[in-house]
Amino acid sequence: MELKYKGKTKDVYSIGGNQVLLKFKDDVTGENGVFDPGANTVGLSIEGVGKSGLRMTKHFFELLKTKKVPSHYVSADIEDVSMVVKEAIPFGKGLEVICRFRAVGSFYRRYGAYVQVGDHLDSLVELTIKDDERGDPTISKDTLSMLGILTDVEYEALKQLTKTICRYIKEELATKGLELYDIKLEFGRDKATNDIILIDEISGGNMRVYKGDKYIEPLELEKEFFK
Amino acid sequence: MELKYKGKTKDVYSIGGNQVLLKFKDDVTGENGVFDPGANTVGLSIEGVGKSGLRMTKHFFELLKTKKVPSHYVSADIEDVSMVVKEAIPFGKGLEVICRFRAVGSFYRRYGAYVQVGDHLDSLVELTIKDDERGDPTISKDTLSMLGILTDVEYEALKQLTKTICRYIKEELATKGLELYDIKLEFGRDKATNDIILIDEISGGNMRVYKGDKYIEPLELEKEFFK
């Protein structure tokens, strides 16, 4: 198995047949030892976070499969802390698609003149380009089109797919008394078919979840969710 | 005449009849003594800059009037360095509408992974909220709608109006051998009719203009333009 790419929270191995193996690690993004799903640097390492993230990811990808959501998910091996996925080609140098149900984090930092912390947002979708050096700037539909990253049609498809997926995830969390505030998804083109598919992971590491007014840390989230 | 509002580069006086008088000042925005149309602080004061800005503004608003572009412009008095305009209500707490023909400034700082400095852009429109404290963040169509600042219909109208206006301004500058790289406009609702109208000024202070590969400073621009 050849190491193809060493990521911040996952390593990617080539296994052939338009598939790759993702090995989940115990690193999470954050700054100064504090977990922050929006951060670009690995802030801390927590034993078991990889396995925890994979359990959540497996659960949600399998749920989304029953909802006919196209994704890269093939199978997951919890003990090996790895997941087999379809190989995908990113949009441009990588996009992050954020879906917001509450005004927190960078959204509140930008639009605090118009919202209070925690105000409800109706599955508001924002896109950012993956660019650590430039702080992952947000990018508009028109700019994505002009820079040749996404066509207008692809943008609208991605936005609608994001809203659909995130509503399923929000509902699923709600069955456990948990509330999704915001979540970051990634999409790519299926290398074999060119279809737009959901990629990456779906876990505490890329969502903000509250129980009542208490923020649930990623590792706690898995415990809460599966208890 | 009652002082209504003291701005960074203009003061606003009430004169009644849904009109106000704008008194242009000799202050320009910038940082560390260097002019930057995108900056939020008054960086320097240059004698004659107010009158220079008003001459440009008068010229362009009168040009746009012949093109049937709706604006706040009523009349200008160059000697008094003042302009009478229709009173307008801003969108939210104020929006800036940027039209880009070349990738420079904050656009390049954000999307430098996808563009080279000076790359052509086809009248790309970006909106930012006026919020000095938060660095005038860009804002998307969906966010403007969700925060109740602009409806989708108003957004599209504003975008098309901006493209039209900026193409006129670009063509006019081109007749003097000058090239418009980017420009910042402001719009509001006419207090008397509620129509969307172009407000503020149109001068070196809110555009980046080059002659060949040489950047033309705002005060120089007026000299080049009227010579």
Automatic annotation (TrEMBL), chains A, B:
Q: Does the keyword ATP-binding apply?
A: yes
Q: In which pathway does it act?
A: Purine metabolism; IMP biosynthesis via de novo pathway; 5-amino-1-(5-phospho-D-ribosyl)imidazole-4-carboxamide from 5-amino-1-(5-phospho-D-ribosyl)imidazole-4-carboxylate: step 1/2
Locate the SAICAR synthetase/ADE2 N-terminal domain: which residues? 4-226
Query: Quick one: a GO biological-process term for this protein?
Result: 'de novo' IMP biosynthetic process
Q: Which UniProt keywords apply?
A: ATP-binding, Ligase, Nucleotide-binding, Purine biosynthesis
**What are the EC numbers?**
6.3.2.6
PANTHER family linked: MULTIFUNCTIONAL PROTEIN ADE2, SI:DKEY-6E2.2
Protein name (Swiss-Prot/TrEMBL):
phosphoribosylaminoimidazolesuccinocarboxamide synthase
User: What organism does the record attribute this protein to?
Assistant: Myroides albus
